[in-house]
Amino acid sequence: MQIVDKVEKEFMKDEIPNVSVGDQVEVLNKIIEGDKERIQKFIGVVIAKKGCGTRANITVRRIVQGEGAERIFPIHSPNVEGINVVKSHSIRRAKLYYLRDRKGKETRLKEKFVKPSERAQKKPKTKSAAKKSKAKAKAKASKE
Questions:
Q1: Residue extents of the structural domains in the chain
Q2: How far is 114 from 27, CA to CA, in rounded Å?
Q3: Disulfide-capable partner of 22 in 91, 104, 119, 136 (CB 3.0 to 4.6 Å)?
């Protein structure tokens, strides 16, 4: 098990935004067409979040020309350039699969107003990472 963890740490991204179910996100996805690369935006609502570590995935749903489109993005994939949280919504469920059956105004979610500074903060991955970040903060405070 320790060997798997060591290999996974190499492929994990350092800076991941705090994305939760119910957030409206903008996923910057790298697309390779022949010998050209471009970045395509996929803007939608996160309806599911699964897995942990390098296997973490988010399912994003959006409406395109009256049809629902869903994509599953591996968070730590090299093809995912970045994930930006646009809005946060107040929800009461872990999965929002019920949005698939709804159309138009029925798909609206109650917006949760979050300060941009709070949205940009990242959660420490583990307790030891939290302790390290607190220690760094104390060291900076003592230097000043």
A1: 2-143
A2: 19
A3: 91
Find tokens 């959006």 and name the residue. Answer: 62
Q: Which CATH number fits domain 2-143: 2.30.30.790, 2.40.30.40, 2.60.40.1930, 3.40.50.970?
A: 2.30.30.790
Provide CB contacts within 8 A for 95, sequence distance 6+: 21, 47, 48
Q: Mean pLDDT in the chain?
A: 84
What does the alpha-carbon distance between residue 105 and residue 102 come to, in Å, rounded to a whole number?
A: 8
Chain-centre distance of CA 127, in angstroms? 20
Give residue-wise pLDDT tens across range 100-111. Answer: 988 888 888 888
**Which H or E run includes 62?**
strand 57-64
Q: What's the pLDDT tens digit per position in 17-41?
A: 889 999 999 999 999 999 999 999 9
Tell me which amino acid residue 33 is. Answer: E
